[in-house]
Design a protein that fits this description.
Strand content: 35-45%
Number of helices: 3
Shape: globular
Strand order of the largest sheet: 4-3-2-1-7-6-5
Structural class: alpha+beta
């Protein structure tokens, strides 16, 4: 029998410290521009005292950035480019580095991981607020 703790990246995290997400082309581009790695299809964004970590299903940190580099958190749409244009609702982290500012869109899914979120879901703002509070930023 498999252990649900082993396959759930949020199970070992403090409540309210993470957001489930799915890979999106604009997220991949932003992370690449920040020197990060290609993320798996499903991952979680986890905030701890000093880092924003991108965590895989097994709980391993795939990539992280200093929490102090995140200047703002907002909710908006992110649009990918042709040949396969898509639009998704995203929690956008504004990340400042020595090279400038990059908007890093996080495309959230419900806390149970079963559905994509839309503007009609109050949960989106709650998830953005959760990340902002963990980062000590006003939204």
């Amino acid at each position: 029998m498999s252990d649900p703790m082993a396959s759930d990246p949020l199970a070992r995290r403090p409540a309210g410290s993470a957001v489930r997400a799915v890979r999106f082309p604009t997220t991949t581009r932003a992370i690449r521009s920040l020197g990060g790695v290609r993320l798996p299809r499903e991952y979680a964004v986890v905030v701890d005292a000093e880092h924003v970590g991108f965590v895989g299903r097994g709980g391993e940190v795939l990539w992280d950035l200093p929490a102090s580099a995140v200047n703002a958190v907002s909710v908006g749409e992110t649009r990918s480019s042709p040949p396969f244009p898509q639009v998704a609702l995203a929690i956008v982290l504004r990340v400042h580095t020595g090279a400038g500012t990059t908007d890093l869109p996080i495309v959230p899914v419900s806390d149970d991981g079963t559905r994509s979120l839309t503007w009609h879901d109050d949960e989106v703002r709650a998830l953005a607020q959760r990340l902002a509070q963990a980062l000590g930023i006003d939204i």
